Amino acid sequence: MKRPARPITAQYLQNAATFYLERYASTADRLRRVLNRRVRRAEIAGAPIMDGVQPAIEAIIARFVNAGMIDDKAFAQTKARALHRRGTSTKVTRQKLKLAGVDDDTLAQAIAGLDQELDTDPRQREWKAAIALARRRRLGPYRPEQDRKELRARDLAAMARAGFDYDLARKVIDATTVESLDET
């Protein structure tokens, strides 16, 4: 038998937000979406919903922001750094941060902070990310010699899907050895 839907109260929303933030790093916008999704599910299930649910959600988010549990700038910088280490292109990093609810100014600061932290220019950062992706996915020079020619188009396609431009992807995939990637 299905459990009846729980009524949406301020305490319920506070508990849901706390539980979510204990498990996941989040932006204010993402937490807002999570809480609104809970409200929509309750509406569909026919559960009672408190009056003024949107102002209550905004108040809860404001409390977490004031307490420092939600910091969009720190989230954006940490996420940008993690994505770069994984080999994510700047283009895809921007898209992922946008989807997470990071605003344009914070996004630009996070990308600029990444360049300062790595002490590189954007082209060099992109090059390092492309190498990291090739290493992680075993593309190009990270493949056995006999497979490289046959799988070159597939490797280039993987780099393109990851958001890297053709010239950069070609340079990484066509490198003869792993050591030659560090020299460029």
Task: Give a quick rundown of the structure.
Its main location: cytoplasm. Helices cover 71% and strands 0% of the residues. By secondary structure, it is mainly α.
What report would you give on this structure?
The structure is a single chain. It contains eleven helices and no strands. The chain is mainly α. It folds into two domains: 58 residues, no CATH class; 114 residues, no CATH class. α9 packs across α10. The longest helix is centred in the N-terminal third of the chain and has 18 residues. The protein is elongated and about 65 Å long. The relative contact order is 0.10. Its main location: cytoplasm.
Alpha plus pi helix count: 11
Structural class: mainly alpha
Distance between the termini: 64 Å
Radius of gyration: 22 Å
N-to-C SSE string, H for helix and E for strand = HHHHHHHHHHH
β-strand amount: under 5%
Helical percent range?
A: over 70%
- How would a textbook summarize the main sheet? none
Mean pLDDT: 91
Shape: elongated
- In total, the number of strands is 0
What is the total number of structural domains?
Answer: 2
Low-confidence stretches: none
